[in-house]
Amino acid sequence: MNTAIVIPAYKPEDKLLALVDEFKDTKDIKIVVVDDGSGSEFEPVFSALPEWVVLLRHQVNQGKGRALKTAIGHIEKNMPDCGGIITADADGQHKYEDILRIKDTLLKNKESLILGGRLFEGDVPFRSRFGNTITRHVFAAASGVKVNDTQTGLRAFSREHFKSFLEIKGERYEYEINMLLYAAQNDINMVEIPIETVYYDDNSHSHFNKFKDSFRIYMCILKFASSSFLAFIIDFILLLVFRALLKEPLGEEMSLLVSTVAARIISAAVNYTVNRKAVFHSHEKLLPSILRYGMLSAVILALNYLLLRLLNIVLSMALPLAKIIVEIVLFVLNFFVQGRFVFGRKNR
Q1: Residue 257 burial (CB < 10 Å; 0-12/13-18/19+)?
Q2: How far is CA 13 from CA 42, 71, 151, in A?
Q3: Residue 110 in contact with residue 80, Cβ under 8 Å?
Q4: 10 shares a domain with 29
Q5: DSSP assigned state of 154
Q6: Where residue 136 sits, what CATH number does that domain have?
Q7: Between the CA of residue 42 and those of 17, 35, 37, 134, 183, what are the distances in Å?
Q8: pLDDT tens for residues 11-48?
Q9: Could you give the 3-state DSSP secondary structure of residue 83?
């Protein structure tokens, strides 16, 4: 099948031309370059592209995610003979041989998302190694899927994913992590192929903003943390109120049980609504996800009560402190299971 190589380019150097030139004799590959508002200063680079390259343009910089979606939309509409897309960076980090290996892997795994995973061995810039390590663990916690290189720009997918990948949120670098989250949540298999790690000048030409773009990438876990904190505040206040009201008539043990259950039911309803709409953007039908969330909530509730009982009654720890410790312990478990089990499926 014909395959399109999509190269989003913002203020590129001659390395873009060198990469494109390597594919001049490859008949089943078409090149689509997106000028993401680079400006007149970089016009000589784009003008030097061969005529057989499809050049798409943004008048102003809109971000890598938008550039990728511009190309995917163009290919879906205007290149019906193209059965798959490979995305590659314009800065020379992706080798010709690795791109061909990704292409061959896609041909054998058309239903999968293919990732070119850097091994981060040898002389790798600290910010690249550190950033990928953090993102890898955040992604694993959010999705339950282990990927060695979550920030790789070398990816491949077949036409069957074009429409759904166009709908993924994100205009800049966060689009790439959202693509992985979407794949994990919709049971799209991810095949990771080791590729060579290439950096020029300590990766100083990267347009990745370590503050703004990192914030966008980690927004999913930040939103989940905010949602969990809101539910915790509601749960915390209601637990203390119910316990104060019920301790005398019901006794110490029964009042703790009733208060824990009542507070958890109310806070869980708030948590479910926020996570479904704002955190995981679930398209799952309401009833199945409610049932799975209810099962999870029952388990979390049981653990919550048992741990509270251990700390508050058996070990005589103050209830407010015991509650804070228990919520911290259960946070990671809750995040992992909700992302993978509750909101991680989509009826097609």
Answers
A1: middle
A2: 8, 20, 21
A3: no
A4: yes
A5: -
A6: 3.90.550.10
A7: 12, 9, 10, 34, 35
A8: 999 999 999 999 998 889 999 999 999 999 999 999 99
A9: strand
Choose the final residue of a domain: 192, 217, 242: 217
What pLDDT was estimated at residue 348? 30
| 235, part of any domain | yes
Contact assessment for residue 89 and residue 153, using Cβ atoms and an 8 Å cutoff: yes
Residue 187, sorted as left (phi over 0), alpha (psi -120 to 50) or beta, turns out to be: left
* pLDDT tens string 296-348: 778 888 888 899 999 988 999 998 898 888 888 887 676 666 655 555 544 33
pTM score, whole prediction: 0.66
Q: Looking at the structure, do residues 158 and 253 belong to the same domain, yes or no?
A: no
Judge whether 110 and 187 are in contact, CB under 8 Å: no
Rounded percentage of the chain residues whose pLDDT exceeds 70: 78
Q: Please tell me whether residue 114 adopts helix, strand or coil conformation.
A: strand
Q: What is the C-alpha separation between 160 and 136, in angstroms, rounded?
A: 26
- The structure tokens 């784009």 sit at 46
Q: Please, are residues 168 and 160 in contact by the beta-carbon 8 Å criterion?
A: no
Mean pLDDT of the chain: 83
> Do residues 102 and 116 make contact, with C-beta atoms less than 8 angstroms apart?
yes
Cβ pair 145, 190 in contact under 8 A: yes
Residues with Cβ within 8 Å of residue 213, at least 6 apart in sequence? 172, 173, 174
Q: What is the tens place of the pLDDT at every residue in 220-233?
A: 656 756 777 888 88
Does 76 share its domain with 173? yes
- Domain range enclosing 198: 2-217
The sheet carrying 82-87 orders its strands as 54-58, 29-36, 2-9, 82-87, 155-158, 113-118, 190-195
- Secondary structure tally for the chain: helices H, strands E: 12, 7
Distance separating alpha carbons of residues 33 and 11, to the nearest angstrom: 12
Does the pLDDT at position 183 exceed 60? yes
pLDDT-based confidence at 268, cuts 50/70/90? confident
Same domain, 117 and 199: yes
Instruction: Please give the residue that has the higher pLDDT: either 128 or 163.
Output: 163
